[in-house]
Amino acid sequence: MNLYTPLSLLLLTATLSSASVKNVDVLKLPDISAWKQKVFSGVTSYELVNIDNQHVLKAVSDQSASGLVREIEVDLNKTPYMNWSWKVDSILKNVDETKKSGDDYPARVYVVISDGLFFWQTRALSYVWASMEPKGSRWPNAFTDKATMLAVESGEDLVGEWVEEKRNILEDIQGLLAIDATRVDAVAIMTDTDNSKQSATAYYGDIFFTSE
Is residue 94 domain-resident? Predict the structure, then answer.
């Protein structure tokens, strides 16, 4: 009996095709060895904790701004979707996130794209949990025109809850940054409160890129 009927061949081909598409793990907890600290103003604490038998990364900022960065090249033609999960314990009060005095976020995940050979050609797209700006809004970073902010979550409605996110980074880069880039060169996370002189606690789960 020939086991490889047309139907079985079709199923086998589909399985092999699916298996050939690999996720790109950027943050695979509990391993954070590839992540390096970047300090801007004061040091935000990042530590591995276990919640409900899951490894997560806890960030505590007290008037500080430092992040964790991983340099990793991701081909957005193959895996354009960035997936992550996060939770915040609170939002910030009375901040204007479009100004330098309020450029703070309880949680942010951002991608860095090299737009040339020199550091001043680097661009960033920052996905933030905003305190005041409405969900879905975007604005230029208050300190540099090389970064664009996008509020994927906002306000207190989901405070204390884990939220899963997925963004098509290829579409966002080409649409929001208006550059013809097809790769990411680094991914970073940051919880920062230095400008508003407040404090915040956030939790981050795995970050990975997928084909769909």
Answer: yes
Q: What is the pLDDT of residues 82-133, one digit of tens each?
A: 999 999 999 999 999 999 999 999 999 999 998 655 555 689 999 999 999 9
**Does 179 reside within a domain?**
yes
pLDDT at 27 over 80: yes
Whether residue 8 lies inside any domain: the answer is: no
Could you tell me which residues come within 8 angstroms of residue 116 by beta carbon, excluding any fewer than 6 positions away? none
What SS3 class is residue 196? coil
pTM over cut 0.85: yes
Q: Where residue 11 falls among pLDDT bands split at 50, 70, 90? A: very low
- Six token digits for residue 129: 């949990």
Decide: residue 11, CB within 10 A, 0-12 exposed, 13-18 middle, 19+ buried: exposed
Give the pair of three-digit tokens for residue 28: 């695979």
Residue 171 DSSP one-character state: H
- Provide the domain limits for residue 86: 22-210
Q: What is the Cα–Cα distance from 15 to 212, expressed in whole angstroms?
A: 16
CATH of the domain at 197: 2.60.120.260
